[in-house]
């Protein structure tokens, strides 16, 4: 498995990114310092995911940023993505790991301490913890956990965690104080007038907090 850096994890949203597209948004964000990019499109067909994913793989080539595919294991394999991310309502981690093999990164969303403690580190490489805040980009999300909840879930998780859910540049310090290895952002980059500049602001804040 490739080493990975969760610090600035962009989750692409097809509607928010519609102005310039997901591939161009990702290219600009990675230029600005995004370390991982997740392709998430709940309405796309597998063929559509593969097409977008191949475009993303092309622009991420040589940057060091990794490509993660949300939920669609067939697309992740066909694209040759660096990883797969699944939720609690998707396939179970054991099945996912069996399908993607030992080398691909596997991320799992957890919303409660019970779910975080149940994570098997032999199968799962990182947890996506949240939602910290309610967010319009994911209408079916669970109850927001806040930063206190984030700290509890991060502590309960046997693998590194990335925080998600309504996070912006002003939340960076609290995310890292809670013990997370990074923050996953959607609207803080997607759909902004200048995704590269928006990413640079977050990346600069991360460097400041970590130093």
Automatic annotation (TrEMBL):
Enzymatic reactions: 2-(2-carboxy-4-methylthiazol-5-yl)ethyl phosphate + 4-amino-2-methyl-5-(diphosphooxymethyl)pyrimidine + 2 H(+) = thiamine phosphate + CO2 + diphosphate; 2-[(2R,5Z)-2-carboxy-4-methylthiazol-5(2H)-ylidene]ethyl phosphate + 4-amino-2-methyl-5-(diphosphooxymethyl)pyrimidine + 2 H(+) = thiamine phosphate + CO2 + diphosphate; 4-methyl-5-(2-phosphooxyethyl)-thiazole + 4-amino-2-methyl-5-(diphosphooxymethyl)pyrimidine + H(+) = thiamine phosphate + diphosphate
Record domain Thiamine phosphate synthase/TenI: where: 8-189
InterPro entries in the record: Aldolase_TIM, ThiamineP_synth_sf, ThiamineP_synth_TenI, TMP_synthase
Any Gene Ontology CC annotation: cytoplasm
Residues at which Mg(2+) binds: 71, 90
Cofactor(s) required, per the database record: Mg(2+)
Binding-site list for 2-[(2R,5Z)-2-carboxy-4-methylthiazol-5(2H)-ylidene]ethyl phosphate: 135-137, 166, 186-187
Keywords: Magnesium, Metal-binding, Thiamine biosynthesis, Transferase
Job description of the protein: Condenses 4-methyl-5-(beta-hydroxyethyl)thiazole monophosphate (THZ-P) and 2-methyl-4-amino-5-hydroxymethyl pyrimidine pyrophosphate (HMP-PP) to form thiamine monophosphate (TMP).
HAMAP family (UniProt xref): TMP_synthase
Protein name per UniProt: Thiamine-phosphate synthase
Organism: Rhizobium vallis
């Amino acid at each position: 498995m490739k080493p990975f850096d969760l610090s600035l994890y962009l989750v692409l949203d097809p509607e928010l990114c519609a102005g310039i597209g997901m591939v161009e948004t990702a290219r600009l964000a990675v230029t600005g310092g995004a370390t991982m990019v997740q392709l998430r499109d709940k309405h796309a067909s597998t063929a559509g995911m593969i097409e977008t994913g191949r475009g993303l793989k092309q622009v991420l080539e040589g940057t060091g940023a990794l490509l993660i595919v949300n939920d669609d294991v067939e697309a992740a394999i066909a694209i040759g993505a660096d990883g797969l991310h699944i939720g609690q309502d998707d396939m179970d981690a054991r099945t996912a790991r069996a399908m993607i093999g030992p080398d691909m990164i596997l991320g799992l969303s957890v919303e409660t301490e019970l779910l975080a403690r149940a994570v098997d580190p032999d199968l799962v490489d990182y947890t996506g913890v949240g939602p910290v805040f309610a967010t319009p980009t994911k209408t079916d999300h669970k109850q927001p956990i806040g930063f206190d909840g984030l700290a509890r879930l991060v502590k309960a998780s046997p693998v590194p965690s990335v925080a998600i859910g309504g996070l912006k540049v002003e939340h960076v310090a609290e995310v890292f104080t809670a013990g997370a290895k990074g923050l996953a952002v959607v609207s803080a980059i997607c759909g902004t007038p200048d995704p590269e500049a928006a990413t640079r602001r977050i990346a600069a804040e991360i460097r400041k907090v970590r130093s």
